Amino acid sequence: MKNMQNYLVVGTPITQSLSPRLHNSVYQELGLSRELSAFDPGDPDGFYQLVDGLRTSEYQGLCVTIPYKLAAYNACDTLSPTAQRTGAVNYIRREADGSLTGENTDAQGFAQAVKLQLNLDFKGICAVVCGSGGASRAIVDALIQGGAQEVTLVSRDAGRAEKAAKATKEHGIARPDSLELDQVEPAAQSGRIRTIDYEALYAGKHRYDLLVNATPLGMNDGAMPVTADWLIVNVSAVYDAVYRKSGTTALVAAVRQTNIAAADGRSMLIEQAILGMQFWGIHTDPAVLRSIIDAALL
To answer: Residue 204: what pLDDT?
Structure first.
């Protein structure tokens, strides 16, 4: 099609992504000459080659998913305040001069999704976030900016979790791949972050208002970051940032058998995509976009 604007959603794996259906339904309904396609670069080297080529390619931007959000941060020339705080980028826009601007819509998208699905205000809560990648950084940022009393970041790699926690701070961060922990200020002043491993999580006596799964577990299998027995005793609500192309995740399915409120990542996918479309120049009422997307994902 003449004057078609082309975009990519990039991840490994990428076959499970609903982003092409979601974005293209909006473009078609609004009569826009745009198309979003899925691409798997295979590894970080492939991703960096793709981004380097973006400066002179036919593509106007990238939507970035697991596991390239930290790499996307490093690849951009200009970063939004949220991207600077989190050290992760999930939307890239190519500017007229070929430079790349990075945005993180995961943080606000997560906050909006939790509000819509769980009717939960972050102010004063104690939350536990499983995972230490790009998604967890955005989620921790949203919790801290929302006034959470305490955020516990749990990971199998305690060092990586500490790095992610200390990177999430009020006035920007160093590049994630060169971060020196002793040179980084504490996390945002509006809350407190602690890092633990899973052994400490199970051994502790904490009660959490919210658990968030920010790991890939459950995306393509029946795995869960924590056991159902532990959840029942220690958690009041669950948000799984992962979603499945059909059905829901094992974590949400298990939690819904109890009295614990739970939601999966489809709502976050939708909310962060609406923000991403705005970043790419679409300023239609979010309620209209949400309605189009909901119909497309039925």
So the answer is: 93
